[in-house]
TrEMBL record:
Coiled coil: none
Family the UniProt entry places it in: Belongs to the OMP decarboxylase family. Type 2 subfamily.
Pathway(s) per entry: Pyrimidine metabolism; UMP biosynthesis via de novo pathway; UMP from orotate: step 2/2
Name under which the protein is recorded: Orotidine 5'-phosphate decarboxylase
Catalysed reaction, written as an equation: orotidine 5'-phosphate + H(+) = UMP + CO2
UniProt xrefs under InterPro entries: Aldolase_TIM, OMPdecase_type-2, OMPdeCOase_dom, RibuloseP-bd_barrel
Bilayer-crossing regions: none
Gene: pyrF
Organism this protein belongs to: Psychroflexus salarius
């Protein structure tokens, strides 16, 4: 999917919401454990309940890989369900892959060709060799870690260089010279809103995937105020704050209520 379809969905739904499907069997409603595939049943219910308010879904691969083959099969069923029933919705494999060369190409093929995701998250620590293989896939988006929301971001990303710039600034600036860089998006944590103006100067047209809203304490209002551009330019992710709003029989309805609450805030800015 190209970003034009994503922009259309944002405009149509008046929403920039991305729902993170981070499924933990210890947290989902107990009655779902009676199903043959409780992960998929949970995802399906969340998707159907929040689809009116969300333009993207982002399964975090760790939450599927942790359950071995059953988890991987649930992931396949989830992305197949999305692509079949809601093909207009943007799908992100939150995999944070960071290898190089042929290995990176195999990862890209797995997520783009085999599973059919629209985008995948990658780590750029090994340089363009770890990112360009993903960018080689037409009409697919590569979401590169830019400035993350975790406390350890200061260990490297916020390291000051001899020229006075932060390391993350150099990474973003360098990434613009890579082949097919127009297919790049960037992860920028909501817990660091003071850096959004700086980031927008570096990548004014790019979409930013913004985690950290909700459970991590990021401000949705500040993200919208400082992160939006003329093309909307934001995908704002909420995972635990939506999918675990309730662990009772009404879990899907509770998730929909929270998704709508966030969407109404975004609507003011759209």
């Amino acid at each position: 999917m190209n970003t034009n379809i994503l922009k259309q969905q944002i405009e149509l739904k008046k929403s920039m919401l991305c729902v993170g499907l981070d499924v933990d069997l210890e947290k989902i409603p107990k009655h779902l454990l009676d199903f043959e595939d409780p992960i998929f049943e949970f995802n399906k219910a969340i998707i159907d309940a929040t689809i009116k308010f969300s333009v993207a879904y982002k399964p975090n691969l760790a939450f599927y890989e942790a359950y071995g083959l059953k988890g991987w099969l649930a992931l396949e069923k989830t992305i197949e369900y999305l692509n079949k029933n809601y093909p207009e919705v943007f799908t992100i494999a939150d995999a944070k892959r960071g290898d190089i060369g042929n290995t990176a190409s195999r990862y890209a093929k797995a997520f783009f060709d085999d599973l059919g995701f629209d985008a995948v998250t990658v780590a750029p620590y090994m340089g363009k060799d770890s990112v360009e293989p993903f960018l080689a896939f037409k009409n697919k988006q590569t979401i590169m870690l830019g400035l993350t929301s975790n406390p350890g971001a200061k260990d490297f990303q916020l390291e000051k260089l001899s020229d006075g710039n932060y390391l993350f600034e150099k990474v973003l600036e360098r990434s613009k010279s890579w082949q097919n860089s127009h297919q790049l998006m960037y992860v920028v944590g909501a817990t660091k809103p003071e850096y959004f103006k700086m980031i927008r100067q570096l990548v004014p047209e790019a979409f930013l995937l913004v985690p950290g809203i909700g459970a991590q304490g990021g401000s949705l209002e500040e993200v919208c105020e400082y992160g939006m551009n003329t093309n909307f330019g934001l995908l704002i992710n909420s995972s635990r704050g939506i999918i675990y709003k309730s662990n009772s029989l009404d879990f899907a309805e509770a998730a929909a209520d929270e998704a709508q609450r966030l969407q109404l805030v975004m609507k003011k800015y759209l």
